[in-house]
Structure formats: structure tokens, C-alpha cells
Amino acid sequence: MKKLSILLLACGLFLTSCNRALEAESVASLDANSPLSTGDVDKLLTGAYKRIMEPSGYPYFSIMATEVMADNYKPVKFQFIQLQYLFEHVVPPGDILLSYYYKDFYTAISRANTIIKVPSASATQIGKAKYVRALSYLRLYDLYEGVPLVDENTVPGPIAASSGAQVLDFIIADLKAAKGSIEPFNASNASLVQLTPTKEAAQALLARVLRMKGDINAAGIEAEELINSGKFSIANNPSNNDSEVILKFAGNRAEENGSWGWIMSYDAKTWNCFAAADDLLALLGTNDTRKTLFDIAEAPATGGFTFSNKYSPNDDSDLLISRIPEMYLISAEAGNTARLTELQSIRKSNLSLDNERRLELSFEWVRWEDLKLKGEKYKLPFPQGAMDANDLLH
């Protein structure tokens, strides 16, 4: 089939300046404007998933950015001053990593929009593309709050940023559409279906975003439905969490596309390296089963730092998106306190709901969202290149 190269240059759209170092390129070997087979559209979806997993030339920092801004990390070394700016909440508009955090999530959004417009795409495939779009916008919201909203019908050109509330509404609409059209999670083939969006993956992310929007009752309804589906369960050993995972994207050692586990290990001590924060570790009770997720015994040999081992240190970490314990915590917050008791019974813990969220979901890219709900006001500035290219982006 004739190849179609889709070059997403910021100078033609609104994402960055025309500086070649800030260009985002996406190449699809398919003509998305023509009728395509189911297999062809699935290939386009794979490309969209790849951009969720590896959004930029520094994918690990794009993924880790909100966690760096939050309070679960204890820095061991900042090799990049840009990460120190992020940690200290003083990122300037000209920061080079800031440009990656902005434009490269739009690459996934562009790929999703392309799939949505394919004439022969099925409802399921369109739903999966909308999930990708929703998750990408959630990453942008976490960093910037209000950003330009681009859907499949948007005409290229300068676009003003929507409000944070409008971005959340857009995400919720996409997730509701995805929930209604993607096939359900097949528990008999869990190890495979955990790697691509399902109805339940859309529902789990919807519960999270509804909570962020302030609709905890609606969030609790979605969470309870997932819990009662019986397809997922809290693992007795949190190091073996297969039964908990609703969605993750698989890391690949050959591509080295999952390096956050390495950066959160002592192996990265001479580069950019993050240990677990002292006050996070203080939440671990004597018998808490989550102790297995931290290299506590190794601290005397690692400069007194304790590292998380939730992820592989071999550049092949999976990217956790949703797990069932989060649904128990959302349901508890919505008023079903029995769900907190159930989780604590398995984890052998007796923390407050807020602290259970912090410990249970640590290093899963949601802590910053929780801090924002508690009153944190900091958000990243738009990249200078993006503002130069789009005079509506101020």
C-alpha cells in the first residue's frame, strides 16, 4: 500500500516553534483517508499506544514529570537542571524538557484523531482511539491544566487554550464513549487484554477523572461496578499484582522504552536518580505487605536511600495505568467505607484514606492529581516555542 508520511511540524500547526530540535514526527505506513482493513487500523492503534508509552525523546521524564513535581520522590542526584526546576516548581518557559512535555503528547492525540476519521474503523477501534486521546489529554491536564483541545474535526491553525474544566469534560466524554464501544475485559485471557484498552480500562480512568472533576458519587458508581465485575482482585503479595491490573502498556527491553524503573533505582545514582521520600516510607506499618515494594534492607548500602522496586530497573518497565486498588479507594471516598476496610485487611494497614491513597498509588502518576485536589496551585508554563508559534496561547 502506498506510504503516507504524516509530518507534524509545529510551524504548520500550533505546537512549537519551527526549531528542528522541537519538531515531532509521526510516520504511518498507511493511507488513513482510504478504507482500511481491521488489521491496518489495529496497526495505527499500535502506533498510538506507542506514543502513550514513549511520547518523546525523553519518554521517561514525560511519564515521570508529575511525580517529580509531587512529594513521593527524594532526589539522589539531578544530572539535568531541568528536573531540579521541575522538582522545585520553577520551570521557565524556555526549558527544553518543557517543550517535550507539551508537544509530544499531541502526537498521540493526532494519531488518535487520524484513527477516528478512518472510514472503515470499527466502533471498538474508534473507542480505543478515544481512550488514547483521553489519556493523552489527562497527561497534559496534569501538567498544564487548560490546553488547546484538538479533535478529529479541528482545522489547523492557532487555537486558544480551553479551561481546565473544559479539558476534563472533554476527557470524560471520550471515556464515556470508549466505555460504551470497546469490548469488555476477558479475564480468561487477562495477560493479553491487560495490554490494550478495554471497556473496564475506560471505566477505571473515567472513575479517576470524575473524582478529579469533583463528582465523587459518579466516580464511586464506576468504581463499584468494576469491583463487582469480579474480574480483578487485590493481590495478597503486591509484588505480584497481575490480578490487580486493569490496564498497563508493556515495556520492551530492545527499545528501552520503560526507563523510569531504572531512574528509581540505585543503578542511576550517578545520573538523574530518585529514591522514595522519607515521609512516604514512614507510612509503612510493621506488617504492611507493601514493604516488599521498597528496597528497605538495602538502604545501608545505598547511602541511606530507600528505592521503590515497583518497576523493573532494566529499561523495560511496564507503564501502569489502572489497578483495582484505586477503585476500592475511590469507592471508599464515595462513602462505601467497607472497601477501605477490605483493602486494609489485605495490606495489613490502618492508615487514613488519604495516606492509603498515597502509599498504594505511589509512583503511579496520580499523586500530583491528589495534591491539586488538596489545593496545590502550581502548573507548568506553556513552552516559549509554543507561545511564539501560537499567539492565542498566553
Largest sheet: 2 strands, antiparallel
Number of strands: 6
| Portion in helices | 40-55%
- State the shape: globular
CATH class: Mainly Alpha
Question: What class, by secondary structure content?
Answer: mainly alpha
Strand order of the largest sheet: 1-2
Q: State the end-to-end distance.
A: 42 Å
Compute the gyration radius: what is it? 20 Å
InterPro entries: SusD-like_N, TPR-like_helical_dom_sf
Protein name: SusD-like N-terminal domain-containing protein
Domain SusD-like N-terminal: 41-209
Keywords: Signal
Give a topology summary.
Blueprint: E1 4-8, E2 24-28, H1 38-53, H2 59-69, E3 73-77, H3 81-88, H4 96-116, H5 123-144, H6 164-181, H7 190-193, H8 199-213, H9 216-228, E4 245-249, H10 260-263, E5 273-276, H11 278-281, E6 319-323, H12 324-333, H13 337-347, H14 353-360, H15 367-373, H16 384-389
Antiparallel strand pairs: 1-2, 3-5, 4-6
Short synopsis of the structure:
The chain is mainly alpha-helical. The chain has helices at 38-53, 59-69, 81-88, 96-116, 123-144, 164-181, 190-193, 199-213, 216-228, 260-263, 278-281, 324-333, 337-347, 353-360, 367-373, 384-389; strands at residues 4-8, 24-28, 73-77, 245-249, 273-276, 319-323. 45% of the residues lie in helices and 7% in strands.
